[in-house]
Each structure stands twice: as structure tokens, then as C-alpha cells.
Amino acid sequence: MQAIGKVGLFGAAGAAGQSIAAALSAAGRDYRVVGRSRQPLAAAFGHDPHAEIVTWNPDDPASIRAAAAGLQTVIYLVGVPYDQFAAHPPLMEKTLEGVKAAGVERLILIGTVYPYGRAQGNPITEDHPREPHTFKGRMRLAQENLVLAAHGHDGLSTLVLRLPDFYGPGVERSLLHGVFEGAANAKRAQMIGPVDVPHEFIYLPDVGPVVEALTRTPAAYGRWWHLAGAGTLTQREVARQAYALAGRAPKLMVAGKTMLRVLGLFSPLMRELVEMNYLMTEPVVLDDTALTKLLGPIAKTPYEEGIRRCFEAARNTASASGTTRRSAAETV
Fold first, then answer.
1. Which parts of the chain register pLDDT below 70?
2. Buried b (16+ CB within 10 A) or exposed e, 295-307
3. What is the pLDDT of residue 322?
4. Are 280 and 164 in contact (CB under 8 A)?
5. Are 191 and 178 in contact (CB under 8 A)?
6. How many CB atoms lie within 10 A of CB 279?
7. How far apart are CA 172 and CA 14, in angstroms?
């Protein structure tokens, strides 16, 4: 039986990295978290004796090689600003060179649905054509093509794990974060519409155990896989459930494509969201039957439970913020 080696999370400070790290720690496995700045890594992982904290410069080949030294598996989670997607392929190319030079055996790219373009009927399996019609989709496609082309060369095995949109407690970079924040603070939720189209979301804490399993499943490599959410529901239904937990009726502020264009005159992020708004009107829904056959049953948190946990996290944050403000006022 092959020994299970150390895993490195490149771009670890985000919510997905924390989910995967939690699963590795729960399995008693040592892991390395890699990022540009030590402070956020220390804040997120400094409490875990299984974690080793390493900083890197992903533009420096020597730094990449040093960050990967001694690792069996690299999980690639490196993000770029939403208006700088052209950086994805060159960053991936440099990383692949560095990890191969360091003797890494396996690399997992956490991917998106962007490379598919418009769905040709839902749910889709892994044999769906990759025909992106957006710039971001083309950049993501180029990135994962580099990963897949590296499989079987210089001792490296690779795979792509494709996820739908995600949500989770305290996950700010989620389409649904504004709903939980609004419900917890008795304010209007800021959302991107349309909100009445069935959409797929994955509860982010469910991702970690799947990735941990893939790091020790050699048969998984050389292709891409889907990890689906717990079915579909509309954003309006998420809001209904979240506000019901707060004992309130939903209050929503929905920005559709036209509003995003207007907001984009003032906000680069809003401007970039226009291109990908097709995923709100024509969502891509993933079929993960193949992954289930490979790994066995995959635990997925039902939406009702996930929404409750997210609301409770937002309420705790709101309560803590209120306590901080009151304490500050008392000391003035």
C-alpha cells in the first residue's frame, strides 16, 4: 500500500482552503498552507498543530519550488482579482514547473463551471463540451488544459475537481452571503438576480472531505470530475428560509444585468459580473454520478441545514459587532 504523503494547499487562506484543511486535520494528516502573506495564514491555521505555514511568491520559480518541497500532493486554490483573469494561465504554468521540479506526485486544481459555457441541458456530466463564450471561461479553460496536459509527465499526476457556486458560514465570497447578512441584521439583502431561477450551490464544508479522499485515490487522476450540491433551489427560497429564521419577512435588493452595467460604471467588480450573469439566467447544474461511483456515497448538507448554519454564523457576527460597538461607546 502506497504511503500517504503530505499535502500542500496553495492559496490556502480562502474559504475552500479552510474546508480542505479542516478535513485533513480531522483525518490526522499534516499539511502545509501556502500563501503570499503570513498573517492571514497564521490567523486561519495557527491554532492547528497539523498545519505548517509557508509563504511564497507565485511569480518566482525558486519560491514555488521551495513551497512545494517535500510534498506529495499540491491542491491549487490560487485566486486572482475578478478583473485580472488573464493571470490564471501563466500562474498555473509557473506553478506546474515548480511542483515538477520539487518532485510533487499529484496536483489537484479546484475548478469551476466557467469552461463549459452555456449548458446543453441540465444536469450535465463530465462529457459535456467545454465551449466557453466568455473571457473568464476561456482563461479558466486554458488553466485547466495546462493541468490536464501535465498529467503523466515528470512523475506528476493531475486532476480537476469542478464545483458549482458555493456557500457556507462566514463565506463572504458567496452569492448568498448578502442574504444571511441581511437577515441577521434586519436589513435589505443585496443580491444578484434573477432570484427565481433554480440554482445549484454546494455547502463549502462538504468539499474538504471529498478533496481529502481524492489525495489518496490514485485512480482519480488524469481527468476532471464534478462535485455537485444538494440539488437546486432559488435564491428567493434561500432568502425566505433565512429571514424566517430571523422571524422576519424577506427584504431584497436585486441587481439584474442592467443594474450591474450601471453599477459597473463605478465599480470594476460589478462591471466584471456582467459577463458571467448568464449563469444566473441559465445556471449550469452538475451531475456527480461518476465521482460517487469512484469514492462511494458523498455526504451533502441539505439546504435547510446549511442555511440555518449560515444564518447563525451571520447572527453571531452581528451580535459580536454590536457588542464591540457598545464597548467602544462606553469607553469614549
1. 1-3, 264-265, 322-332
2. beeeebbebeebb
3. 64
4. no
5. yes
6. 24
7. 10
Q: What is the DSSP letter of 11?
A: T
The pLDDT of residue 265 is 67
Instruction: Label the pairing between strands 232-233 and 199-203.
Output: antiparallel
Determine the Cα–Cα distance for residues 250 and 241; give it in Å rounded to an integer: 9
**Any idea of the CA torsion for 295, 32, 81, 257, to the nearest 10 degrees?**
30
Say which DSSP state 124 is in: B
| CB neighbour list of residue 66: distance below 8 Å, 6 or more residues apart | 54, 56, 102
Query: Is residue 262 classed as helix, strand or coil in its secondary structure?
Result: helix
Max Cα distance, the chain (Å): 64
CATH superfamily of 7-166+205-229+284-301: NAD(P)-binding Rossmann-like Domain (3.40.50.720)
Sequence ranges of the domains in the chain:
7-166+205-229+284-301
Contact 114, 136 (CB under 8 A): yes
227-236 confidence digits (pLDDT tens): 999 999 999 9
pLDDT in tens, 75-113: 999 999 988 999 999 999 999 999 999 999 999 999 999
Q: So what's the pLDDT on residue 242?
A: 98
- Report the pLDDT value the prediction gives residue 1, as an integer from 0 to 100: 41
H/E stretch holding 326: helix 303-331
Are 95 and 58 spatial neighbours (Cβ–Cβ below 8 Å)? yes
Which neighbouring-strand residues pair with 203?
167
Predicted TM-score of the model (pTM): 0.93
Are the C-beta atoms of residues 11 and 17 closer than 8 Å to each other?
A: yes
